[in-house]
Structures are given as structure tokens and as C-alpha cells.
């Protein structure tokens, strides 16, 4: 069921009222086939590429459902540094500025014109975490998109070949070698989480 289904709105509304973040994580399994003629996903594609796709699709559904207009202070964190969104910045930017020009059977153009902001600006409202399996390129890409004020430390532990220590170690190594200030680094490690979860550690 898509997250923009109206039955989920009370959950988002309650989280927003209580200032509780929503942590967005994919749930696709091997039973979700990669091609219509198959009964399951092969080669763990459901995990490698299916999860980032699923997260990105959920984010776009929330953007165009106008959730952020209805709840402008909602805080939604997209796991794995916003999945595909930072890498596809051009598609969610200039590409979605043409929203509706590729669709003939629904009035997406009218929806776009009714939105007070560009789709791109709504994607920038999401928060993200650093759980990208120690990839410096992905971390830099995600930080450039979401900014150092909306990214929190995460490592995806214990789901690595060492039971958690590898992803933690590699993520720390990446963050410690980024070309950012010590103040920004502290935000990623601590300050942003304190703001997101309304507490000081």
C-alpha cells in the first residue's frame, strides 16, 4: 500500500503534532519480481536496487500527494541517504519541472501548477542518514543534496560482513575525511539527531 494512501494521513498528522520524526525504510522482499514474467527477484536485485527504488518512489508519492503542504513541519527521514534522490537531482529538478508533459490520461500538469513550490524543493524537505555502506561518493552526493543540517549519522549495523563493526568503521572514516567544517561534522554525528528527536544526548 502506498504511503500517500489517505488512511495513513492520521499517522503523519499525529507524528507532526507530537514533533516525532517518521523514519522511512523500504520493505520489498524477494517475492517482488524484477520482470512481469517471473515469480521472484533474482540475484538479490530486490535488495540492491529494489530498496533504493522503493524508498524513492515513496518519497515522490509523498511529494505529489501534497503531504508537505498539508503538514509543512513534518519531519520524514529517508534511510540510505535519501536513496536515489540525490543522484537523480536533475530528474527531480528540471525533469519534474516538466511534470505532466509525459502523461496524457491524468492532469498532472494541473497538479504541478497548483503546487506552491517546485517538486525539487519538496524533496529537499526530507531528512536523510549516512547509511550508505561506507561509500564516500554516495555520502558526498547525499550531503550536497540534503545539506549538513538534515543528515544524521547511521551505519546500517549490524547488517554487514562483520556483524556491524565494518559499516560503523567505514562510515566514521568517510565522515571524518569529508571536506566539511568541524561544526558540520558535529551536526551529523550528534546535533542533527538531537534536533530530529527533540532531545539532547
Provide an overview of this structure:
- The protein is mainly alpha-helical and 201 residues long.
- It has one domain (6-196): TIM Barrel.
- Helix content is 47%, strand content 5%.
- It is built from 11 helices and 4 strands.
- The protein has a 4-stranded parallel β-sheet.
- The longest helix is centred in the N-terminal third of the chain and has 15 residues, at 50-64.
- The radius of gyration is 18 Å and the shape is globular.
- The mean pLDDT is 96.
Q: Helices, strands, pairings?
A:
Blueprint: H1 9-18, E1 22-24, H2 45-48, H3 50-64, H4 67-70, E2 76-78, H5 79-82, H6 89-95, H7 108-114, H8 119-123, E3 127-129, H9 136-146, E4 151-152, H10 165-176, H11 182-196
Parallel strand pairs: 1-2, 2-3, 3-4
- Cα-to-Cα separation, first versus last residue: 36 Å
| Poorly predicted runs | none
Roughly what percent helix?
40-55%
What is the ordering of alpha helices and beta strands? HEHHHEHHHHEHEHH
Q: Give me the Rg, rounded.
A: 18 Å
Write out the strand line-up for the largest beta sheet, numbering strands in chain order: 1-2-3-4
CATH class: Alpha Beta
User: What would CATH call the architecture?
Assistant: Alpha-Beta Barrel
- CATH T-level fold name: TIM Barrel
**Apparent shape:** globular
Counted up, domains total 1
Rounded mean pLDDT is 96
Major β-sheet, in short?
4 strands, parallel
Task: Report the strand count.
Answer: 4
The CATH H-level homologous superfamily: Metal-dependent hydrolases
Which strand-content bin applies to the residues? 5-15%
Amino acid at each position: 500500500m502506498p504511503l500517500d494512501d489517505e488512511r495513513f494521513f492520521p499517522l503523519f498528522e499525529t507524528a507532526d503534532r507530537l514533533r516525532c520524526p517518521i523514519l522511512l525504510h523500504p520493505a520489498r522482499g524477494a517475492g517482488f519480481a524484477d520482470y512481469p514474467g517471473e515469480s521472484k527477484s533474482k540475484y538479490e536485485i530486490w535488495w540492491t536496487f529494489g530498496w533504493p527504488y522503493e524508498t524513492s518512489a515513496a518519497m515522490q508519492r509523498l511529494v505529489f500527494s501534497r503531504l508537505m503542504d498539508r503538514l509543512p513541519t513534518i519531519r520524514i527521514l529517508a534511510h540510505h541517504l535519501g536513496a536515489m534522490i540525490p543522484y537523480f537531482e536533475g530528474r527531480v529538478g528540471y525533469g519534474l519541472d516538466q511534470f505532466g508533459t509525459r502523461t496524457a490520461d491524468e492532469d498532472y500538469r494541473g497538479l504541478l501548477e497548483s503546487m506552491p513550490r517546485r517538486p525539487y524543493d519538496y524533496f529537499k524537505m526530507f531528512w536523510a542518514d549516512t547509511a550508505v555502506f561506507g561509500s564516500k561518493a554516495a555520502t558526498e552526493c547525499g550531503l550536497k543534496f540534503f545539506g549538513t543540517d538534515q543528515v544524521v549519522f547511521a551505519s546500517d549495523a549490524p547488517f554487514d560482513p562483520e556483524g556491524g563493526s565494518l559499516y560503523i568503521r567505514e562510515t566514521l572514516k568517510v565522515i571524518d575525511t569529508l571536506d566539511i567544517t568541524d561544526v558540520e561534522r558535529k551536526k551529523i554525528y550528534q546535533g542533527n539527531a538531537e534536533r530530529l528527536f527533540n532531545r539532547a544526548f
